[in-house]
Amino acid sequence: MRKFVTTTAIAAVALLALSGCSSRADDGGAGGAEAAGFAADSVIGVALPSKTSENWVLAGGLFEDGLKEAGFKGDVQYAGASTTVKDQQDQISAMLTKGAKVVIIGAADGGQLATQAKAAHDAGAVVIAYDRLILNTEYVDYYVAYDNFKVGELQGQALIDGMKAKKAEGPYNIELFSGSSDDANSAVFFDGAMSILTPLIESGDLVVTSGQTDIKQTATAGWKAENAQSRMDSLLTSNGAAELHGVLSPNDTLARAILTSVKAAGKALPVVTGQDSEAESVKSIMADEQYSTINKDTRVLVKQAIAMAQTLQKGDKPEVNDNESYDNGKKVVPAYLLDPVIVTKENAADAYANDPKLSPLTK
Fold first, then answer.
1. Phi-psi bin for 222: left (phi > 0), alpha (psi -120 to 50), beta?
2. What is the pTM for the complete model shown?
3. Of 295, 314, 330, which residue constitutes the final position of a domain?
4. 314, part of any domain
5. Most distant CA pair in the chain, distance
6. pLDDT tens for residues 248-283?
7. Same domain, 162 and 286
8. CA angle 218–219–225, rounded 5-degree value
């Protein structure tokens, strides 16, 4: 959903800014709570998708603890795995019934929450899209996330760097994977990566062996590992004896599934990218299997979202640092973007030095 597909101009941002004046030109449908402030012990709703990755599980606990520490009544809910969208729609409606002043939404499907966003606005609540943009509604007030286009750029460059480290000269045979089509971030990640890879594909330095370069061909429904593994199985069969040098994977769960497929086929491991710094993938990187991941510290992102709620509680406007990039189809959503970090075996110890869970894995 990004307005541009060239190198991002977002500078590294200061973390955890608790308040400040927004640089928005207009309020674009912001709820009444933003203008008036609200009681310090108000309900803050947090609607998260199903527990498809370690980071979503971590985020829920961090929100529960962080909102309590901030003095709010936190209402943190996960959508179920089978009826994810309807669950989330119903949960948001219930949060508003409880009087939530801010609803922080990690969308299960960003294209199916317009009704709930409008209901929040009508109830005087502020909607903050968390990590995933909410689409096609003027009633999403803020977006807080890591710079997802840059994530894609880092993945694309890591794929190239990793292949060159193993084989000095191309051409290189690659395959492309993207995330679930119901996640707005999938296209942003893919576009960022393709901004790096497309020129090399056009020059012949990179060869997509299957010819599947369209995001509809590369999509992985539900971000499910079994879907990625099944597609990789089919690609390896179709590619025959052709050596595969690299695979663009949008996250760690899919990266491990791709590697499982390659191992089962008895083929040499290609360079495989990832995202999310999942513990099993950090182990895989240190074992020289998965090549890279992206560190998007969930602790920092959750703190920033809670800081925005605290600023709103005081009746002030949260700080944003991007007023141009994230067009959801109805408005450009004011965003606060954090800077992602590429992680390979070479810099893993430094990247996770302050993470008590991941740091021991890099020793």
1. left
2. 0.83
3. 295
4. yes
5. 66
6. 999 999 999 999 999 999 999 999 999 999 999 999
7. yes
8. 110
Residue type, position 91, single letter: Q
* Pair (306, 254) in one structural domain: no
Paired tokens of 350: 């430094």
User: Which residues does residue 326 pair with via DSSP β-bridges, in sequence order?
Assistant: 2
pLDDT of amino acid 175: 98
Q: Which two tokens stand for residue 278?
A: 């999942």
- How many other CB atoms are found less than 10 A from the CB of residue 6? 11
- Give residue for tokens 């089962």: 264
Written as six digits, the tokens of 188 are 């942003």
Residue located via tokens 């990039």: 325
Same domain, yes or no: 104 and 160: no
Q: Where are the alpha helices (DSSP H) in 204-251?
A: 215-218, 225-239
CA–CA gap between residue 152 and residue 274 (Å, rounded): 10
CA atoms of 41 and 167, how far apart (whole Å): 59
Q: Which residue has the tokens 């002030």?
A: 316
Domain of residue 41, residue span: 32-147+297-340
* pLDDT tens track for 111-156: 999 999 999 999 999 999 999 999 999 999 999 999 999 999 999 9
CATH code of the domain in which 98 resides: 3.40.50.2300
